[in-house]
Design goal:
alpha/beta
Length: about 350
Amino acid sequence: PRNRLFIPGPIESPKWVLSAMRKPMISHRGKEFPKLYKKVVPGLKELLYTKGRVFLGTSSASGVMEGAIRNASAKRVLSCTCGAFSERWFEIAKANGKETDQYGVEWGQPNRAEEIDTRLATGQYDCLTLVHNETSTGVMNDLESISQVMKKYPDVVWCVDAVSSMAGVKIEVDRLGIDVCLAGVQKAFAIPPGLAVFAVSAKALARARTVANRGAYYDFVKFAEFDDKLQTPETPAIAHINALAAQVKSFRKEGIEARFQRHLQLAGIGRAWARERFDTFAPAGFESVTLTTVKNTRGIDVKALIEALKASRHVEIGNGYGKLKDKTFRIAHMGETTEAELKEILGWIDEILPTLKQASA
């Protein structure tokens, strides 16, 4: 039997998603595609509480991360980093020849609004990048407090990586003033990887129109032109968009607010379990809603735990990422995960823990 995935992503896809992906192919320039587009994009706007543009890109979220850098900055980028994926965005900015500075914190800590304020007050920056939910550490940055700072700097385009929070956490894009909010669909959307979703504000589009060499594949201006025709600039991942249409329907059936509440309840279960047996890696008030990163305070053999779960229960959780390998382990509870499923997995871990030897130093 295959292993059910409760790693930070990709996660389990429900049967209606996989069934939708098997629909017959259509022409992306024919009459049927705009009908499909209209089934998806309005629902995404509801999900993100935005009246602005929402685009569909055929790539991983990293493609849009690069596109955001190329479109949103004509001067200098401030990259907020708090783990592996936010550091990747910093590296992407440098790789694209952008002048960029790093505001970094220790892994396991959040980026602070007051520190962002201090740096933006210098007037050096026209773009800020931030990861909302840092999957490598299980830290969720506080968009609310940062949004209050960003309102002081109307000339700075605010780009947010919501890869592992979008569709699992309430993100009010317009109210918060986020200019680019991006995600891949393989996490809380519970769709196989290969499609990116990104909201782009009028301010970000206006900035893009002033930027030379903003790239070809993720030119936001071109995306807007094709959005007016209910199309995408390049050939879209039609099977994935069919799956997204199925999920938009599912979100409405569950209720978007109810979906967010379910994720909060799952997070509470994960945190309580972690603190009773180990500890959470993220500090209180900054814990992820879509996964629990457990701090390995007991020094267990994390690899042995993961292998035991695979062998006995055909379930896969994640080891710590990068330099946190074996120091943490990660249990995802996003997408269509139920309370019963999460409690079952945690119960299985409880059964295995007494059999594990302490990892060698």
